[in-house]
Amino acid sequence: MKVLYSAIDQRVPGIKGGSVHVQSVAEGLARLGHEVRVIAAPGDGDLPASAVHWVALGAPFGLPHLRLLRRRAVREIARRMQPDVVIERYHNFGGEGILAAEAVGAAGILEVNAPVVDYPGSRKQVLDRALLVEPMRRWRERLCRAARLIVTPTAATVPPWVPRDRIIEVEWGADTERFHPHATGPVPFTREAGETIVVFAGAFRAWHGAIGLVRAVAALRARGRRDIRAVLIGDGPELMRARDARGGDPGIAFTGGLPHAQMPACLAAADIGVAPFDVAAHPPLALGFYWSPLKIFEYMAAGLPVVAPALSRLHAIVRPDQDGLLYDPNDPAGLERAIETLTDRALRLRMGRSARDHVVQHFSWAAHCARLDEAIGAL
After folding, report:
1. What's the CATH superfamily of 2-173+364-378?
2. Please, is 184 exposed, middle or buried when counting C-beta atoms within 10 Å of its C-beta (0-12, 13-18, 19+)?
3. Tens-place pLDDT, residues 252-293
């Protein structure tokens, strides 16, 4: 089939989860035999050779809130291509892909990775209601009605009136061929004999909890566990606060953002993958933990045991005491204890092998695209 994929708020290639997701889904569908054309903002560096046709078109001035202004350009691309399916990566102020699907008679698919519904106390909801006719809610619901299919990690993100047979729940995944325990390449950190390297990879935003990991490792080292080191990979608004929390401890290192192509080697060179999410720091998570956490899938593919808070959706991904340790997020020492427990090398290796087997079977990008391919075929 011909598939047009509109993701104009994402830079491809890029280092953020959304960029990795768009590229992985597009290339996965192309490998399954579909003709895939993707509209995305140009990223840093060259795209890898693949069967995907890339169209460099981002939101005006790089502002996702203005992306609907690209609707005519997207519709013209659709008119020339005549796709069978148009997939739009959902954004509150989007809609250009669904409108293009309607214009050319294609099946519209809305890919939802953030809540369509408003969380309690949302400023956006307050503003919308102040406008009396709630134009933002009405527009979002119009997109949901127009979509033949909604693809999301959890139906909790979607208005409850959407028929369940128009929603498929599917997690993100990892490239299990590139991410594996023996991946090699340049790594911006070293290790000494006997050290346990704890890694965090992702955005430095408050709810990703990087500062909590820094404090936990600093506390462990302060009470004598100098064999435990942390490497934090990524960038974002909380980076300076996390660095400040380190103090002068040389056992906690920050690499900054790295190209995604470098990540397999970095994870393979570590021992424990930590995803210390702080749900209290992100009000939309009052709706439930709706993320499909790329970092966790990639840790597991690299053969790392995972340390993360014991949240209901994470239980469905990381099997406790098999693929890693899930700690009580209300226990101030929970993260420290989990990390210290995994300094046991035999335990760490056993859990890492289990984690890799689990992600290969259930949470690869290949599995994600196979499910999406089945849904497209049904349309």
Report:
1. Glycogen Phosphorylase B; (3.40.50.2000)
2. exposed
3. 999 999 999 999 999 999 999 999 999 988 888 878 888 899
